[in-house]
Amino acid sequence: MARIYANENFSLPAADALRRLGHDVLTVQETGKASRAMPDEDVLAFARAESRILVTFNRRHFVRLHAATRDHAGIIVCTFDLDFEGQAARINAAVCSESSWTGRLARVIRPPRTESTAT
Q1: Which of 41, 93, 104, 109 is most deeply buried (CB count within 10 A of its CB)?
Q2: Is the dihedral of CA 37, 39, 42, 48 positive or negative?
Q3: pLDDT tens string 71-97
Q4: What is the mean pLDDT of the chain?
Q5: Is CATH 2.40.128 correct for 3-108?
Q6: d(CA 40, CA 51)
Q7: Cβ–Cβ < 8 Å for 58, 9
Q8: Which sequence spans correspond to the domains of the chain?
Q9: Model confidence over 107-119: pLDDT tens digits?
């Protein structure tokens, strides 16, 4: 499975769900780099040095970094979702859809909410 680096803003329950799916997930918190206000460029450089796909909710900044350089191990930008298992499953599907993530960007968004009707 994939080597993943979860950015500081990425949900820990979703990171744990990715681990249960077999991925090697390293979080910013586990590296001791949390709460240091690291520039996004440094976060991406660390992921690249570790050969890890970066997963983040910080879509705007990392899409911009991807446009500036494709010298990375992959970026997955996500929308926040309280369905952590569902989010992990969608990330897993994206990861498994590509044989190589080098220089690639994917967007994983939460599905639209459906309104249930009471009877």
Answers
A1: 104
A2: positive
A3: 999 999 999 999 999 999 999 999 999
A4: 92
A5: no
A6: 16
A7: yes
A8: 3-108
A9: 999 988 766 555 4
